[in-house]
Specification:
alpha+beta; nine-stranded mixed β-sheet; seven-stranded mixed β-sheet; Alpha-1-antitrypsin, domain 1
């Protein structure tokens, strides 16, 4: 059984990369292996991932991302770690008193403001205190208007097929006849659709399994190689597109997710984060992440925040108009085409009943 899901790989990667700068030994090795960059030094990784922090502001599209380091008043960062955060990640470094209840409220208010009021109370109550020495934080906000907006008068309730054995759910579906880039990928038994945002630097890519119950196979097949194959086969044709309007919010158990990809030492007392303060006293006790996305006729609005708490195929033209009807579970990506980076990724499995 699948549930709806949405994450921001960019946000998680930025906080992980900031932690990597302070890591040594096996702790650093595990993070680099998860990034698949074992042949690069830490500074190169920081430079490459830190580049994701640059904002984008154009006609119809906004992308902002902010990094922060909140340091306990009684804790000192090494000059190396502080300067790298500031120079490579454009991070603001601020001293705070984690023992004060007002500090938690202030941090959550910062996150709320940075995400245009989308991410609220990321860090739970009673998560801070005197034992908290450092919080590394990233917040990302995206708002993009479709290059070709959907006509709201054509939005109507249609069936969405959750699974072969599940009764269809009536769902508000948007419709448009226009020219879009699409592909049929025989190797992965899927259809792909690209929906560009204004300016075309960003686009949503929908990966729709050909089979109603094909999501499991699709997820297991996802890889950079498959995404490159899809990109190479996208071809612009006139077609009818039908996709659901939706709004998702998701908060994963980020520690478990990162442990599952081999990042283990960071979260226990074996952590070597000595480049942060000069000693091996720190480890990450909590990792928080939340993402919200809303897709409608005008475009998409999405936001995410991540915080680590440290303690001591192609179609050919045919006489008819092809259709792309996303009426069963699919995967979606919001991609920065210029930087070849996935900013948000998710799966839509089950709409709310209208």
């Amino acid at each position: 059984k699948y549930d709806n899901l949405v994450l921001s790989p960019s946000s998680i990667s930025l906080v992980l990369a900031m932690a990597l700068i302070g890591a040594q030994g096996n702790t650093a090795k595990q993070i680099k292996e998860a990034f698949h960059v074992t042949n690069q030094n830490d500074e190169t990784i920081a430079c490459n991932i830190g580049a994701l922090n640059r904002p984008t502001q154009g006609s119809g599209v906004t992308l902002s991302t902010v990094n922060r380091a909140l340091v306990s008043d009684d804790f000192r960062l090494t000059e190396f770690f502080r300067s790298t955060l500031q120079n490579q990640f454009s991070a603001t470094v601020e001293n705070v008193n984690f023992s004060l209840p007002s500090t938690l409220e202030a941090i959550n208010k910062q996150i709320e403001k940075l995400t245009n009021d989308k991410i609220r109370n990321l860090i739970p109550k009673e998560s801070l205190g005197a034992s908290t020495k450092l919080i590394l934080l990233n917040a990302i906000y995206f708002k993009g208007n479709w290059l070709k907006a959907f006509d709201s008068t054509k939005t109507r309730v249609r069936p969405f097929y959750v699974s072969p054995n599940h009764k269809p759910i009536p769902t508000k579906m948007m419709a448009s006849r226009n020219y879009f880039r699409t592909a049929f990928i025989k190797e992965a038994n899927l259809r792909a659709l690209e929906l560009p945002y204004s300016g075309s630097q960003f686009s949503m890519v929908i990966l729709l399994p050909n089979q109603l119950n094909g999501l499991t196979h699709l997820e297991s097949s996802l890889s950079p190689k498959l995404l490159s194959l899809i990109d190479s086969k996208l071809n612009k044709i006139q077609m009818d597109v039908v996709i659901p309007k939706f709004k998702l919010e998701f908060s994963p158990d980020l520690k478990s997710v990162l442990r599952s990809v081999g990042i283990v030492d960071l979260f226990n007392t074996d952590a070597d984060l000595s480049k942060i303060s000069g000693s091996k006293e720190l480890f990450v006790s909590d990792a928080f992440h939340r993402t919200i996305i809303e897709v409608n006729e005008k475009g998409t609005e999405a936001a995410a925040a991540t915080a680590f708490r440290f303690i001591a195929r192609s179609f050919r033209r045919t006489p008819f108009i092809p259709k792309f009807v996303a009426d069963h579970p699919f995967i979606f990506l919001i991609r920065d085409n210029r930087k070849n980076t996935i900013r948000f990724v998710g799966r839509f499995c089950k709409p709310e009943k209208n």
